[in-house]
Design a protein that fits this description.
Blueprint (H helix, E strand, L loop, with lengths): L5 E5 L2 E2 L5 E5 L2 E5 L7 E9 L3 E11 L12 H4 L9 H18 L22 E8 L6 E6 L6 E3 L8 H13 L17 E8 L6 E7 L6 H13 L3 E8 L12 E6 L2 E6 L2 E6 L8 H16 L5 E5 L5 H5 L6 E6 L2 H13 L5 E5 L2 H7 L4 E6 L8 H10 E9 L2 H13 L3 E8 L9 E7 L2
Parallel strand pairs: 4-6, 11-12, 16-17, 16-19, 17-18, 19-20
Antiparallel strand pairs: 1-5, 2-3, 3-4, 5-6, 7-8, 7-10, 8-9, 10-11, 12-13, 14-15, 20-22, 21-22
Length: 449
């Protein structure tokens, strides 16, 4: 097999990165945009020692689950990789991704149930981060997502997975920035004014916080005037902020944010608690699907009478806050000090008294304390937990660990380690947080014996 070879293949299943998997004489071929049960004519684009990549030339026999993408930009944008499949089958594919990861990486045979669907699978994305650039000749502003494997911006006028108000605000910024002499950013030259537009929309009341990310050390009059203009234009907008980010970096938001008009947060309601979400606050992009996860975890906590809970990798302590009323006491540990400050505000807003906050690395915190917890909630980043952090968790947990994961591969790896230490896997439940993508959230419950 070599580059540019054309082959007829049958797609067996989906990979954990959303590509279709075919085999020729046992050799694996990954096909972008392929659906399980497709019969395809493909062209080999890259050959490696253990696998090849291919692109679709022709769909000979489409999968019965294949549908036409509802977004006309799906192929060029690349943000919604699975839109070619009907939504119910997407849930099955995500279940399969989790089960395959448990088997191939963790050596764990477990019957994973169907993925819990998102309450909304369009207009579900309540945080939008659009990079901004500018055409060379007409100086027209471009705003959208990057094309796959590139930093070329797809200029998106309508995105069906985000609230419609986002399209209106982005279009207004695109059309009116020039009136305020605000230019688009040139990433290669590190020139221009406007780098990103970040929108946070409340699923509770539809209010919007707008943040303009500037390539500047300090704000300037035109940028402040433009911020006030946006605030006046849209009644849904509760505030407009300027984030000052002059560094050559892929990090979108710096630590310097100035609120120019209105307030610097939107309010979000999850279960029965109210949260203040600022420009740089980490909070789930799909609040309604996140609520399903929080309810699932809370119900698991309730199975233990009045437990003590450790909320590790806590962010703004969302889990700790939401389970506080079914717990004797909660300790939320988060390395990021700004997140802990936000959590303090939420505790005060909701009059919660039984949550302790620590701005510290989870492993370091556990190494220095002697207390044990009935239940530990682990919600690590995509890279998962270190063996050291898992060892400390085992030492400090009496009954069970609830592991919330955004990466099936690292979840499977960490579960394997915990099971080797004598733990038992009670349940695994995937949730659809990022509809029409290959990403899947999973909650695993592990008992200590």
């Amino acid at each position: 097999m070599k580059r540019d070879d054309e082959l007829i293949v049958n797609i067996e299943k989906i990979s954990n990165l959303g590509t279709g998997i075919a085999r020729i004489d046992g050799f694996v071929i990954f096909v972008e945009g392929a659906c399980p049960d497709d019969k395809l004519r493909v062209k080999i684009s890259e050959v490696n020692k253990n696998f090849a990549n291919a692109e679709i030339l022709e769909i000979i026999n489409p999968s019965p689950h294949r549908v036409s993408p509802f977004c006309p930009m799906q192929k060029v944008c690349g943000a919604c990789q699975l839109q070619y499949a009907d939504y119910n089958y997407q849930l099955e594919m995500k279940r399969s991704i989790v089960q395959d990861a448990l088997h191939s990486i963790g050596g764990i045979e477990f019957d994973v149930p169907l993925t819990v669907p998102s309450p909304n699978n369009i207009q579900y994305r309540h945080k939008v981060q659009y990079p901004i650039s500018q055409t060379k000749v007409s100086k027209r502003l471009l705003a959208g997502y990057y094309k796959p494997q590139s930093h070329d911006i797809v200029n998106i006028k309508h995105c069906p997975i985000q609230p419609a108000i986002c399209d209106s605000i982005i279009e207004y910024i695109r059309e009116n920035a020039e009136l305020f002499k605000i230019s688009g950013y040139n990433e290669k030259k590190h020139t221009g004014d406007l780098r990103h537009v970040v929108l946070r929309v409340s699923a509770m009341d539809g209010k919007v916080l707008v943040t303009l990310v500037l390539n500047a050390k300090k704000s300037f009059k035109n940028s402040e005037d433009f911020a006030r203009d946006i605030y006046k234009k849209f009644p849904e907008v509760v505030g407009v902020c300027l984030n000052l980010n002059p560094k050559q970096t892929n990090v979108i938001l710096s630590e310097s944010t100035l609120c120019v008009a209105g307030q610097d947060f939107v309010e979000e309601k999850v279960l029965d608690k109210t949260f203040k979400i600022g420009a740089d606050t980490f909070f789930q992009v799909n609040p309604k699907s996140a609520e399903n996860i929080f309810a699932y975890v809370k119900n698991e906590i309730k199975k233990t009478d009045n437990p003590t809970v450790l909320d590790a990798y806590a962010g703004i302590a969302t889990f700790g806050i939401l389970v506080s009323d079914v717990s004797k006491g909660v300790v939320s540990v988060e390395f990021n000090k700004n997140s802990i400050e936000k959590a303090k505000e939420v505790l005060e807003l909701n009059n919660i008294k039984n949550v302790e906050l620590f701005a510290e690395d989870t492993t370091k915190y556990l190494k220095k304390v002697k207390r044990k917890f009935d239940i530990t909630i682990l919600d690590p980043p995509r890279k998962g937990c270190t063996k050291e952090s898992l060892d400390e968790t085992l030492k400090h947990t009496k009954e069970k660990i609830i592991y919330v994961s955004c990466n099936p591969a690292t979840l499977a790896r960490d579960l394997k380690y915990l099971l080797e230490k004598g733990c038992k896997l009670q349940s695994v439940q995937p949730f659809d947080m990022f509809c029409h993508t290959y990403h899947v959230e999973t909650v695993a419950v592990i008992s200590m014996s």
